[in-house]
Specification:
Belongs to the GTP-binding SRP family. FtsY subfamily. Residues 3-83 form the Signal recognition particle SRP54 helical bundle domain. It catalyses: GTP + H2O = GDP + phosphate + H(+). It is a peripheral membrane protein. The structure is a single chain. The protein has 298 residues and is of the alpha/beta class. The protein is 48% helix and 13% strand. The chain has helices spanning 7-12, 30-42, 46-61, 68-83, 111-124, 139-152, 165-178, 195-212, 230-243, 260-269, 290-297; strands spanning 99-104, 129-134, 156-157, 183-188, 219-225, 247-251, 273-277, 285-287. An eight-stranded mixed β-sheet has the order 3-2-4-1-5-6-7-8, sandwiched between helices. The longest helix is centred in the last third of the chain and has 18 residues, at 195-212. Bound molecules: guanosine-5'-diphosphate. Guanosine-5'-diphosphate (GDP) binds at residues 105, 107-113, 251-252, 254-255, 277-280, 284.
Length: 298
């Protein structure tokens, strides 16, 4: 799959380092704290997380001498404190199997690629994986998912374009159960333009799933594109309302200086962050390591 690079390298290529060049004086004073807070807001951490970090720095270090390096470390520690509680990989624990993982997100967020990466990841862990092509609205979506399924060699249940997603999901759960599949990863349509239709579609999928297994879907994973900045947060609001999100995967963290959006999401929503996307290749989905990400973002 091409060169595998360490997560930190993939992340730090483009991420801004807001704290660099910030310390003007030897002691941590209000002017420096202002600059730190502004820098954090600029890198998309959002006003609330930035204020929280400022308050912590004030409480612990105000008036004390601090070097730029120490300041960076102190900020990284505060960011890590926000991120640690939400770092939570998807674990395959469902009984009876399969664990049904609905994947939602707007078109272009990296949803299809993320489904393939997730499936590959589970497969590497020796789980039996199946995909369901529940995004029947876009002509290309089914084909794209099928291509990935072939490449990573996992079975896929698909129907015709414009077909009924709920019936595909029904068929997929039956097939997965018969074949002893551990994880069924379901693609869904991401059309936020028509909230009502999307809501109805997801409700119908849930109803069908619930009939087969009251616990399903076990996970409802929202895929967000980090390069969308604050707009990604707005998507959390909408999808929480229409789909009952249980966790997030943030993609394209290699392509943005706006990694702070992860911190804003963690701070404002407290939803589990399952993984991060750091590239287009199949092994570019990485576990979400809060300490590593905090060090790179600060
Ligand atoms: P979908 O429309 O949400 O299903 O999005 P796709 O999975 O088709 O992805 C849209 C584009 O984003 C494709 O070109 C992907 O290769 C790219 N992409 C997905 N995830 C990442 C990522 O983590 N980093 C980068 N750089 N590109 C990504």
């Amino acid at each position: 799959f091409g060169g595998f690079r360490k997560t930190s390298e993939r992340l730090s290529e483009n991420l801004a380092a807001p704290i660099t060049g910030v310390v003007g004086t030897a002691k941590l004073d209000n002017a420096t704290l202002d600059t730190v807070e502004d820098a954090l807001i600029m890198s998309d951490l959002g006003p609330s997380a930035a204020a929280r970090i400022r308050a912590k720095l004030t409480e612990k270090r105000f008036g004390l001498s601090i070097t730029e390096r120490e300041l960076k470390e102190a900020v990284a520690e505060e960011i890590a404190e926000i991120l640690r509680p939400v770092a939570k990989p998807i674990e395959i624990t469902a009984f009876p199997r399969p664990q049904v993982i609905l994947v939602i997100g707007v078109n272009g967020s990296g949803k299809t690629t993320t489904i393939a990466k997730l499936a590959h990841w589970f497969k590497e862990d020796d789980y039996g994986v199946m995909l369901a092509a529940g995004d029947t609205f876009r002509a290309a979506a089914i084909g794209q998912l099928a291509t990935w399924a072939g490449r990573i060699d996992v079975p896929i249940v698909r129907g015709p374009e414009g077909g009924d997603p709920a019936s595909i999901v029904f068929d997929a759960v039956k097939a997965a159960t018969e074949q002893g599949i551990d994880a069924l990863v379901v693609d869904t349509a991401g059309r936020l333009q028509n909230k009502r239709e999307l809501m109805d579609e997801l409700a119908k999928i849930r109803k069908v799933l619930g009939r087969l297994n009251p616990e399903a879907p076990h996970d409802v994973v929202l895929v967000l594109d980090a390069t969308n900045g604050q707009n990604a947060l707005a998507q959390i609001d909408v999808f929480k309302e229409v789909a009952g999100v249980t966790g997030l995967i943030m993609t394209k963290l290699d392509g943005t200086a706006r990694g702070g959006i992860l911190v804003a999401a963690a701070e404002q929503y407290g939803l589990p962050i399952h993984a991060i996307g750091v590239g287009e290749k199949i092994d570019d989905l990485r576990p979400f390591d809060p300490d590593l990400v905090a060090r790179v973002i600060a």
